[in-house]
Amino acid sequence: MCGIVGYIGNKNSVPILIEGLKRLEYRGYDSAGLGIIADNKCTIVKRKGKVSELELSLKEHPISAPLGIAHTRWATHGEPNQINAHPHTNSSGKLFLVHNGIIENYNVLKTELQRNGYEFYSETDTEVLVKLIDSFLQKKLELSEAVRYALNEVKGTYGIAVGYSDEPDKIVVAKKGSPLVLGVGDGENFIASDVNALIAHTSRVVYLEDGEIAVVYKDRFEAKTIEDEQIKKEIHEVTVALEEISKGEFPHFMLKEIMEQPHSVKNSFRGRLLFEEGSSKLGGLQGYEERIARSKRILICACGTSWHAGLVGEYMLEQYTGIPTEVEYASEFRYRNPIITTDDTCIFISQSGETADTLAAMKEAKRRGALVLGVCNVVGSSIARESEAGVYIHAGPEIGVASTKAFTSQLIVLALITILIARRRHLSLIDGQTIIRELDLIPGKIAEILEKNEEIKTIAQDFINAKNFLYLGRGYNFPVALEGALKLKEISYIHAEGYPAAEMKHGPIALIDENMPSVFITPMDSVYDKVISNIEEVKARKGKIIAIASKHDDKIDNLVDYSIRVPETIRMLMPILTAIPLQLLAYHIAVGKGLNVDQPRNLAKSVTVE
Ligand code: F6R
After folding, report:
1. Ligand 1, from 196, 306, 492: best to mutate by most atoms within 8 Å of Cβ?
2. 392: buried, middle or exposed (CB in 10 Å: 19+, 13-18, 0-12)?
3. What pTM was computed for the model?
4. What is the pLDDT of residues 560-599, one digit of tens each?
5. Beta strands at 297-302 and 344-350: parallel, antiparallel or unpaired
6. How many domains does one find in the chain?
């Protein structure tokens, strides 16, 4: 959501902070700020808007310091303006703090602090936290103790970093529900809410767990729990390369990530296909295969695009394993009384591995005794660490806010899980081998679709003024319709709805006229003829139609205005192919409208608040 970056060492922290913020900007981008300590004095600079605004003002009035913390914000409490931007400070300006997450009891704390004479200048929950820490500093506690005492009074989630000019040799950080990582350097240390902000400087990282505080000096760090137990933290090596988080020659991360898919999808199944056995090998599930295969029910929980991947997973798992499978929005699951038993397997899908709702749903399922599996992209993320077992999708860093390559890689991993379990149940060797062979062919087929980029761009030009869109598909391609509509609405701001094609006549057909374009996902599968009937119904009402159709379909062009052809594969893998033209269509429509596709309005990459 928001991003935190910090530095303590012998260098000037300011350029390091700005560069780190730029790498985190995809997480949130309505305002940015930094606080530094030089010669025992704090300086705070904040700006509304993007990190470039902050950078510009620092170019006009340069500052320098060996300690600094910075923040890029995505507003939750209070409008995005300079006053509400982080860092927030105490009244003397000696103490400053940046915060990701939400302090749920901030109103109660604020009233209490006001009663004790504290005044507030912003609308944020974060200012309450900095003043709460200040109230403990007034009791002559050291900074790390004041932070610890304050956090013991806080309800909610936080990843924080705190600087104090009376203790200028340290940054104090803490985490609960919002990610926080330390980067260990040589005579210098870094902090960030995402390893992407650190990898230009160090590959050695320490992941803080919920309820932990670290005091970071330039040459060491000390960790404890908020209950004051000293703890020893392990240093991990991360392997992300800098090119993976750069745009390279592409105008946008989104296009780069769409174009990467032959490669990212291959990485998702690399070393995991067992051609002879007609099965898959998933190290992260080793030892759990039998328990999953014996589950009475599989429950998939996720949000947004990951939820759409889960819907495709439901079709796969039910078709091949015969285990009843349900898919739930994590945000709904966590607030009802879900019936979960120890015979259930729950799969939590999350690109970022940090989505607050998915994480909370996972904890609830775990508490109720289900086997809890994670399917994540970000290595070492909270959901990955919280799960009992799981599978990384290995799509590589996804920076564009609209999820693209993570979706196709999630589908690959769901197919691998399906085949692993199905082969332990009743899937035949021959059928298993067919799926594995088809999986192996997917990257080449994706590359073939990506060659149609210019063709799709031309089609997109005809729709940049559309106000609404319908996306329709059946069976395995119904979730793709939902995903296509989500891609379009989130980056182009065109209202779009995904529907099961046959449901159209139960209501949405009333919307059809010459101004309501429809996208039909209609590969030549068992429901092809039925979808063709739905196409005829739209045509009869003068609706414009774009079809995502099979390469060998020689009938479709007589029925639709535009067709984008995709190669064929088995039904369960078809969504991996049909999703790609829809990603490109949304991308080109949004770019045609002159919009910033990598940072769409009101959105953030990783939703670490409810
Ligand atoms: C849409 C999109 C979001 C995410 C959702 C879940 O393009 O990116 O809908 O899919 O916020 O995020 P993760 O997968 O990180 O849990």
Report:
1. 306
2. buried
3. 0.83
4. 999 999 999 999 999 999 999 999 999 999 999 999 898 8
5. parallel
6. 3
